[in-house]
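note to self: dont lose this again. the chain is below, predicted strucutre after it. 243 aa total, dont forget to put it in the shared folder this time
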Amino acid sequence: MSAQETSREKHSLPHGDVGDFYDCVYYQATKDGQLPSRHLRRLARRFEPWKGRRVLDVACGAGHWLQAIADCGAVPAGIDISQVALNACKTALPLAELHCGPAEQLPFDEQQFDFVSCLGALEHFLAPEVALREMKRVAKPNARLLLLVPNAEFLSSRLGLYKGTLQSSIKEEARSLPEWQELFESAGLRVQSRWKDLHILSASWIFRGKFYQWPLRAAQALALPFWPLAWQYQVYHLCVVKE
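---
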């Protein structure tokens, strides 16, 4: 089977198969009680104040980002295709409004949220353009949308040193930064600002995997702050709804 045929097959996967992958493979080792990382807490402080603001995190996973902003006073809601991940999220945030389902069909009324986020997940959705339009639909007119996406021009990938994440076995579609911006604009969003994702500047990321990979991971983590935006692994996009 050609790469193009394989790509089409992954695009045509039913959401049930995707949910099974995340339940049985990706989130299999998820544990309750894990706290938000220092990186997520710094990110939360960037958008203060949170008190009383309704926030939806799309593909919320185990809820670490929702925990970080809930600790700052936000009113959290989340959706994820994995019930296993949502069970962990519910343990951490028993009062949060949580739903299990695909991002392409958000179970919320229009203009409900002050802030909508989707961090490191859009590239895995079966129909990202549909999911973006859904995020726009449930966002208030003055809401901000925070999207974290991978960059197809990531330098390590161009050098053949990076082959994708575990999730590439089910669906992973990185785009260049201009391609992401075009997608966001086609969904009715305007990019206000962009910045580097430097979460890999941590011991937990560097010392993950086989020990012989650690030097290369450390070198990459230390180089990333000096690389231009066009070479980054992931990039944050802060968006607003187009008028």
